[in-house]
Amino acid sequence: MCATEPRGGCFSTLAHEATHATGHSSRLDRFTRFADRKALAFEELVAELGNAFLCARLGLVPDFDQSAAYLQSWLRALADDKRLIFRAASEAQKAADFLFATATEERAAA
């Protein structure tokens, strides 16, 4: 069960998928801005970094072993762009900030 998993468990997966959701055109519009042949690898990199940022902000410990292996595989796919990790981290931070701002707004409206 999610609530009893000590290392973030399904919350880590939820954070990854929530980061993907911010890429929609009605949110941060990442999917149209990064729509080349490497877009999938880049998006997965953004989502996994977003997962780590969100879990850290929530006080959860993501499964760093799994994240590291996942990130390493996508970075290999994108090895020709040495600045990519910085672009991905920037997009992941925007996504985390968007998710927290949206949650704060919804909580205030309730």
UniProtKB/TrEMBL annotation:
Q: Could you tell me which InterPro entries the record lists for this protein?
A: MPTase-PolyVal (IPR041459)
Question: What range(s) does the Polyvalent protein metallopeptidase domain occupy?
Answer: 11-91
Q: Name one Pfam family in it.
A: MPTase-PolyVal
Q: From which domain of life does this come?
A: Bacteria
UniProt name for this protein: Zincin-like metallopeptidase domain-containing protein
